[in-house]
Amino acid sequence: MATVTGSGAQPGLADCTPAPEGNPASPAHPAQSVLTDAGDLLRALAAPVRIAIVLQLRAADRCVHELVDALDVAQPLISQHLRVLKTAGVVQGERRGREVVYRLADDHLAHIVVDAVAHVQEGK
């Protein structure tokens, strides 16, 4: 098999030969179930309103009416997008009295969104 060499090689891509059989999955060769779950997560982040919600929650925890005001999107639509994000494990909600306050489940997801937005902005 061919091997990638030279200064243009990316870390982790220097050897294009398949991993020997019997080796556990590594970050460069994750299990199919991990790839499927990662695809599901990226699909959950793939709507512009959901990206905007993640950016808002990166700044601070918010309840639905705050997201409605900040994004100028109807409350039912915000609630629907929050449901998708919650199902995907991107956000968590905590009831405080009559309201549910949403926050990001983890900072890794905010980095994915911020990096995607920055990448697009660099190209324009």
Automatic annotation (TrEMBL):
InterPro entries in alphabetical order: ArsR-like_HTH (IPR011991), HTH_ArsR_DNA-bd_dom (IPR001845), Metal_resp_trans_reg (IPR051011), WH-like_DNA-bd_sf (IPR036388), WH_DNA-bd_sf (IPR036390)
Signal keyword on record: no
Recorded superkingdom: Bacteria
Keywords of this entry: DNA-binding, Transcription, Transcription regulation
Region (Disordered): 1-32
GO MF annotation terms: DNA binding; DNA-binding transcription factor activity
Sequence ranges assigned to domain HTH arsR-type in this UniProt record: 30-124
NCBIfam families noted in UniProt: HTH_metalloreg
Protein name listed in UniProt: ArsR family transcriptional regulator
Species whose genome carries this gene: Amycolatopsis rifamycinica
